[in-house]
Amino acid sequence: MRTEGLRAQVGYGRKPRLHGGMQCKAAANLLDRQFDVTEPDTAWASDFTFIRTHEGWMYLAVVIDLFSRQVVGWAMRDRADTELVVQALLSAVWRRKPNAGCKDAARAEVFDYIEMFYNPNRRHGSTGDLSPVEFERRYAQRGS
């Protein structure tokens, strides 16, 4: 996007509303759009999207490490709710910091896409046109 002069549209003015009779609280923006990270696991970002299947909508939430842009956690559900985002975050925490046609087809395809293409093969301009896995591998080799 950078080389083509394209930029993402940031926000659309939505404000926190009432939830269960109480004012919703917006989380503080700790990154303040500073996405240039020098080490893995120092800043993560997340997003979610929806996928149409023959059985209805599925929702996908992902967590990426801003260092390499690698997907470090993800979750899919048939509802876009808090549980979806929490599961994606827990997936990232488990993966990065472990203790030492139909919905099932969509989940399998998303798994294949992330694990077999996106992380090992998808190149990013912010990582010198390297895949997230290759970027982190080269970083680790420098420290050895």
UniProtKB/TrEMBL annotation:
Concerning InterPro entries, the annotation shows: Integrase_cat-core, RNaseH-like_sf, RNaseH_sf, Transposase_IS3/IS150/IS904
Name a GO molecular-function annotation. nucleic acid binding
Q: Start and end of every Integrase catalytic domain?
A: 36-144
Q: Which SUPFAM superfamilies match?
A: Ribonuclease H-like
Q: Which domain of life is it from?
A: Bacteria
- PANTHER family, sorted: TRANSPOSASE INSF FOR INSERTION SEQUENCE IS3B-RELATED (PTHR46889), TRANSPOSASE INSO FOR INSERTION SEQUENCE ELEMENT IS911B-RELATED (PTHR46889:SF4)
Organism per entry: Xanthomonas fragariae
Q: Which GO terms describe its biological process?
A: DNA integration
- Alphabetized Gene3D superfamilies for the sequence: Ribonuclease H-like superfamily/Ribonuclease H
What is the designated name of this protein? ISXac3 transposase, IS3 family
